[in-house]
Design goal:
By secondary structure, this protein is of the alpha/beta class. Helix content is 45%, strand content 22%.
Length: 311
């Protein structure tokens, strides 16, 4: 069986295409395409025509790649940017026409639950006590779990694109401005996370900001998930990275090894969410997973098809 999953996020479309067999799951193709669907959404409450066009064009190309690989089963989900937009129905209709199948719009809680399923599908984290932080473009999710079971989850509109447009209007960003952003985010998450606790759980981070932090720390010339998955950073190392980012122009940020040019303006707001979360929870180390929402959708799709085949 061959499956393709498309995650239509606020900043990018992430896709994974796999083949399942008796030996397990083999990744055929994995890609992230920057489309910045949430661009200026905070100002207009609508998806802009240019952002929609970029996203639909990327979907056409990804669908063509899936057809080339002989994909049989498809799933697509949309998250924060689409659910927060007034013209979401028009967008979902256009995306369905391009893909040839419907796109499921996830609520914030559905998104958090699916992220947890994606991370815990990894044998490395299966059955463990973990606390997940996922930072997207439009929203961020916090999920508390024990023994591989989800206990609590929450989604807040604190994604990197949204924070960038709300708080950072010019670069370079001064250290004091970055510190104020961390403090502001911490204040915004303190009440919603008041009944959450890290305890003995490991803090596991997913999403583009967090994988980029590892890539920058390791000075990776090219993104290599094998060198990023299951890596970890201390809070001190993340603070050092934030100091590295401050005072740099966008062009200087783009020149940093490990930081894709398309994410240069998002790395400071994304890192601020990481630091605010770690400070609030008292976390000293952040572990990294390259699996997230798309892997949760994939796991459910495989289980659904296996159940159908067995009945």
């Amino acid at each position: 069986m061959r499956y393709a999953v498309f995650d239509l996020g606020s900043n990018s479309i992430k896709c994974v295409m796999v083949e399942t067999s008796a030996r397990g799951v083999r990744v055929l193709h994995e890609e992230s395409v920057s489309t910045r669907l949430a661009e200026h959404l905070i100002d207009t409450c609508e998806l802009r025509p240019e952002a929609i066009a970029r996203t639909l064009d990327a979907l056409r190309q990804l669908r063509a790649k899936a057809d080339e690989l002989g994909i049989e089963h498809f799933r697509a989900v949309a998250t924060s940017a689409v659910r927060d937009s007034r013209n979401r129905r028009e967008f979902l209709r256009a995306a369905r026409e391009v893909l040839g199948f419907p796109v499921r719009l996830l609520s914030g809680l559905d998104e958090a639950e699916t992220i947890f399923a994606g991370v815990t599908a990894d044998p490395h984290w299966r059955g463990k006590d973990i606390f997940i932080l996922d930072i997207g473009g439009g929203s961020a999710e916090w999920v508390q779990g024990r023994h591989g079971k989800m206990e609590k989850r929450i989604s807040l509109p604190l994604g990197a694109v949204r924070l960038r447009e709300r708080f950072l209007h010019e670069y370079p960003v001064a250290p004091d401005t970055a510190a104020l952003l961390v403090e502001t985010i911490r204040g915004q998450i303190a009440h919603p996370l008041a009944h959450y606790s890290l305890g003995s759980r490991r803090l596991v981070g997913t999403g583009g900001t967090i994988t980029c932090l590892v890539a920058i720390h390791k000075k990776l010339a090219e993104f290599d998930p094998r060198k990023i998955d299951h890596a970890s950073l201390t809070i001190g190392q993340i603070r050092d990275l934030m100091r590295l980012f401050c005072g740099r122009t966008i062009e200087q940020l783009r020149a940093l090894p490990g930081l894709p040019a398309k994410r240069a303006d998002l790395i400071i707001p994304g890192t601020a969410v990481v630091l605010a979360t770690m400070e609030l929870l008292g976390a000293r180390r952040l572990h990294v997973s390259v699996r997230g929402l798309r892997y949760g959708v994939l796991t459910a799709a495989i289980r659904e098809e296996e159940t159908r085949a067995a009945s």
